Amino acid sequence: METLNIIILAIFVLFASLANAKIHEHEFVVQATPVKRLCNTHSSITVNGQFPGPTLEVNNGDTLVVKVINKAHYNVTIHWHGIRQIRTGWADGPEFITQCPIRPGESYTYRFTIQGQEGTLWWHAHSSWLRATVYGALIIRPKEGETYPFTKPKRETPLLLGEWWDANPIDVIKQATQTGAAPNISDAYTINGQPGDLYKCSSQETTIVPIDSGETNLLRVINAALNQPLFFTVANHKLIVVGADASYVKPFTTNTLMLGPGQTTDVLIVADQPPSRYYIAARAYQSAQNAPFDNTTTTSILEYKSAPCPKKGGASSNKPIMPSLPSYNDTNTVTSFSKSFRSLRKVEVPLEIDEDLFFTIGLGLNNCPKNFDAKKQCQGPNGTRFTSSMNNVSFVLPSNFSILQAHKLGVQGVFTDDFPAKPPVKFDYTGNVSRSLWQPIQGTKVTKLRFGSRVQIVLQDTSIVTPENHPIHLHGYDFYIVAEGFGNFDSKKDASKFNLVDPPMRNTVAVPANGWAVIRFVADNPGVWILHCHLDVHIAWGLATVLLVEDGEGLLESIEAPPEDLPLC
Ligand SMILES: *[C@@H]1O[C@H](CO)[C@@H](O)[C@H](O)[C@H]1NC(C)=O
Ligand SMILES: *[C@@H]1O[C@H](CO)[C@@H](O)[C@H](O)[C@H]1NC(C)=O
Ligand SMILES: *[C@@H]1O[C@H](CO)[C@@H](O)[C@H](O)[C@H]1NC(C)=O
Ligand SMILES: *[C@@H]1O[C@H](CO)[C@@H](O)[C@H](O)[C@H]1NC(C)=O
Ligand SMILES: *[C@@H]1O[C@H](CO)[C@@H](O)[C@H](O)[C@H]1NC(C)=O
Ligand SMILES: *[C@@H]1O[C@H](CO)[C@@H](O)[C@H](O)[C@H]1NC(C)=O
Ligand SMILES: *[C@@H]1O[C@H](CO)[C@@H](O)[C@H](O)[C@H]1NC(C)=O
Ligand SMILES: *[C@@H]1O[C@H](CO)[C@@H](O)[C@H](O)[C@H]1NC(C)=O
Ligand SMILES: [Cu+2]
């Protein structure tokens, strides 16, 4: 009798919560499209011929059904970056992790429900370097009848920061894979697909962001760049940070944001300056030493509606006002910015830990293999090939099954579950590391986690080849960043600094260069979840691993059955 009551109550609650929820159906046609930038036209892979791709706008609780039709001549998959995908891991998207690629001429329908998330996320291709041009915003507003925890903005503008090659980005990564050297750096950054008027042939199409004197607008800033953490600022205007990675934060004011690739930041901006035109600008935060990088600046223009019209011929008095940006290597600005983040409310951080993990992250160099042509294939430093690893394992994608499928079907030989819980060799991670430690092993190793286990991961950067700020992204979860710091993590000394009251919740943590970050979460979403650096060049080199969360025993504690149209290898 009691069970029956509970079931009736559960059904009632289910229907009540579905009453307002909508189902949004979309079709994404992945296709080659001519795109003109920096004076040249490239046949770029886009969604529905748009660059950036379509913005998806939903409310918390809604369901998205997106049929992806691949009319391009590359394999493709789409990832819904930051979406929890509770029990729907088949819709997560990373190729060979949760699905095989959608081959040219094929299609696949992604279905998932947004559960308890509000703010700015995005979607992007998760196959080779296709996401250079295949990405778009995913905006989640509160449920109908609910409000933002801040003044309702007059206007909302998504600003997608991108990275543009005056070449085919797939050729750029192919060339690097062949030579073993670092890939060519990009030629421009973009805001909503446009480099802005500091680049040749770009002034006509510069993105304009309109604003009215006195009003408060919400900028939804997304770092969709392939390989570069970026500073972001607006001339003469303060930015009030209210959210990041679709979680609200205690509002704080800053002049400059730093976003690692994969991260989003929601900011309020008040039009309290004399009516005019102000540059919105972004450029590199470069923490790796002696590495070439794209040092250009992308701009769009914040334009007051009552600003005097720009004169033809570009009279200098009509030039927008340019902000100053931090130096490329200004780690102090990055540190004070990231230390400002607190969850809006007190949160439930796991206090006890069942799985205490310690992962080193960083680069490496492979000696030239015997059967390689050293001149052609070992063009890394001193005749080596670049590599990258976590806990000295350079991740290799499977090619005949996705890991999720192999796990559910019990197929042997696709992956092993012996990823080390701590570095196999203890060393001074951020010191002068002996050259004998620079070459990792290769493998498709996962960490198995029991459903419901409370997990802590220390992410420790190494100085191998160079220290670097790595944006580490976990699929299927949000996590609390309870602390970060420089040097080697010291469990005795550093545990006392943990914020277990109101730490920020994110899906991507920018781990400080030559430092560490500690994240915590409860493994309550069964499935196969990739944990990786969101610099795509580092994924290609193997800076990734997989967390395999087993099914629980309860009714809603196991992953759903795979969709019938799931692509096979
Ligand atoms: C990379 O840069 C080199 C040197 O500028 C150039 O020769 C090569 O064509 C570029 N590769 C690609 C794929 O664009
Ligand atoms: C950007 O890099 C180029 C090539 O290394 C260099 O010539 C130029 O001075 C740099 N520009 C800035 C603004 O740092
Ligand atoms: C940052 O770069 C400047 C030169 O561009 C250099 O003088 C300075 O020492 C660098 N700072 C750090 C912290 O590396
Ligand atoms: C390459 O070799 C030179 C000379 O032996 C050395 O100074 C340099 O540190 C080496 N670089 C790397 C990345 O191993
Ligand atoms: C899948 O590929 C791996 C690596 O190439 C191989 O060892 C394994 O036997 C293959 N499994 C099946 C079921 O084909
Ligand atoms: C780093 O260690 C190597 C030997 O392992 C030594 O030759 C080199 O001088 C050291 N470099 C620094 C900057 O201490
Ligand atoms: C990684 O493993 C290789 C092969 O066993 C070894 O030579 C190297 O020293 C290891 N490096 C680290 C950092 O553990
Ligand atoms: C496309 O994906 C299939 C597996 O589904 C794989 O066999 C093939 O090699 C992939 N093609 C490319 C160009 O990566
Ligand atoms: Cu990285």
From TrEMBL:
Keywords: Apoplast, Copper, Glycoprotein, Lignin degradation, Metal-binding, Oxidoreductase, Repeat, Secreted, Signal
Names of required cofactors: Cu cation
Localization of this protein: Secreted, Extracellular space, Apoplast
Enzyme Commission no: 1.10.3.2
Pfam families the UniProt entry points to: Cu-oxidase (PF00394), Cu-oxidase_2 (PF07731), Cu-oxidase_3 (PF07732)
Reactions listed under catalytic activity: 4 hydroquinone + O2 = 4 benzosemiquinone + 2 H2O
GO terms of molecular function: copper ion binding; hydroquinone:oxygen oxidoreductase activity
Gene3D superfamilies: Cupredoxins - blue copper proteins
Name the UniProt record assigns to this protein: Laccase
Manner of cofactor binding, per the entry note: Binds 4 Cu cations per monomer.
Catalytic class of the enzyme: oxidoreductase
Any Gene Ontology biological process: lignin catabolic process
Domain Plastocyanin-like, first and last residues per copy: 30-144, 156-306, 418-552
Annotated Gene Ontology cellular component terms: apoplast
Signal sequence region: 1-21
Domain of life of the organism encoding this protein: Eukaryota
PROSITE patterns the UniProt entry points to: MULTICOPPER_OXIDASE1, MULTICOPPER_OXIDASE2
NCBIfam families attached to this UniProt entry: laccase (TIGR03389)
InterPro entries: Cu-oxidase-like_N, Cu-oxidase_2nd, Cu-oxidase_C, Cu-oxidase_fam, Cu_oxidase_CS, Cu_oxidase_Cu_BS, Cupredoxin, CuRO_1_LCC
Job of this protein: Lignin degradation and detoxification of lignin-derived products.
Keyword set includes Metal-binding: yes
SUPFAM superfamilies per record: Cupredoxins
Family membership noted in the UniProt record: Belongs to the multicopper oxidase family.
